[in-house]
Amino acid sequence: MTTIPRLAALVLLAGLVAGCSSGSGGGYVAAGAQQAVAAPQTVEQLSAKVGCEPRMQVDAAELRTGYCKTPDGEFFVTTFRSQTGKDAWMDAAPEYNPHLVGPLWTVLSSRKVLDLLKERLGGDLHLTDHRTKQMRVVE
User: pLDDT tens digits for 67-112?
Assistant: First the structure.
């Protein structure tokens, strides 16, 4: 199975996980806290940073996923409404695929493409399963 069908299968799985999660948990600030919460970036905003107009694959309340193809390569950009939704997605993410992770977003592709995208998007590059002690994050 090639990488793109695997990524597409993961995107569909992520939509199912998000649709079944209870998910309101992550957007609240404790009473009395004086923190300003920045609006999370959209699939379109993240894609624009790397010169892509995404083809939407999933457009659900809890998450949105777009497919991009640029001279750098092919990748999926997923944004989440809440940290709970992102955590559920990360728990379902395949350990064999590296992914670039930022606040309420992730990008899936090959390591080569993610290295190029990281320069413009920031985030942390997760190279192995985030649920194990062997996880390696490249900064």
Answer: 999 999 999 999 999 999 999 888 887 666 788 999 999 999 999 9
Question: Going by C-beta distance under 8 Å and a sequence separation of 6 or more, which residues neighbour residue 85?
Answer: 18, 21, 23, 26, 62, 63
Phi, psi of 88 (to 5 degrees): -65, -40
The residue behind tokens 């493409």 is 113
**Alpha carbons 93 and 89: distance in angstroms, whole number:** 6
pTM exceeding 0.70: no
Nearest 5°: phi and psi at 9?
-60, -40
Locate tokens 């993961």: which residue?
A: 10
Q: 136 to each of 11, 31, 60, 129, 133, how far by Cα in Å?
A: 23, 36, 30, 9, 9
Name the helix (H) or strand (E) containing 14: helix 3-20
